[in-house]
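Second attempt. The first submission of Decaprenyl-phosphate phosphoribosyltransferase had a stray character pasted in from the spreadsheet, which I only caught after the job came back as garbage. Lesson logged: always re-copy from the clean sequence file. Corrected sequence (299 aa) follows.
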Amino acid sequence: MILLYLKLMRLPQWIKNLILFAGLIFSKRIFDVPSLLRVTMAFVLFSLVASSQYVFNDFLDREEDAKHPEKKHRPLASGALDAGLALVITGAILPFALIGAFLLSKPFFFLTLFYLAFNLVYSKILKHIVILDVMSISIGFVLRAIAGAIVIEVEFSHWLLLCTFMLALFWGFSKRRGEISILKSDAGKHRKILEEYSIEFLDLMMGVVATLTLVSYVMYTVSPSTAKSLGTENMVYTVPIVVYAIFRSLYIIYIKNMGHDPTRAILTDRAVLVSGLLWLLLVLFLMFSNFFYSVPVLQ
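This time the job returned cleanly.
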């Protein structure tokens, strides 16, 4: 039962909440132990709230999921875990997480509460409205980024928030594309909103948001405010890694046909993981090594 409930919580999806650490990194407080502990606590609490939301969503969608070739294996959709028991356990975890969030930081608590309420609205209304369904998911990622920043009381770059929003849109549209590719003519039977999409339309949307993701990240790296806050004008040298990651993502979606499950696609693709690690190491190097080294920049 415990393993089934852990599966229901979708622990691999916690990777999405790592964006809470972005504010810690870009405020140059990653080596500040109190700040690191606060963000780590925020990560765990926020993840518990998000997992609770997944349980509620799976409870509401269990009949539709039972018709999906992959989702039918989920604990509630398959009937392996009793739905009532799952709700009881979640009813104990969610208040614990919210109380912890309140004790950690009141602004963080209210933002987490808003995230929970927003996802309830998404589950009931927004997920049934074309385009807004994907945009709502992307807003959730922006809320995560803001949550990680406010818990340690730092500002978050508007350009970086925009980049986060666009990247989430990219993977959101890729997921819709993947679902249509797998379900084909049965897509609408599983999820009504899929009838409003087509492969051609989603390809167009993905091309637009992939471009906007790169543009917003480039604008972030060359922004004077970025140079001032990070203490370096050399963030632009991280752009090639981001370009590669975007191109690799397109390869995963179009060649490996894994766009329907972005989390698994990222976690199982070594190239994406290595490029993400290299990007992080380069960012840290550029932010903290200016005392020793500076790359010349043409004015």
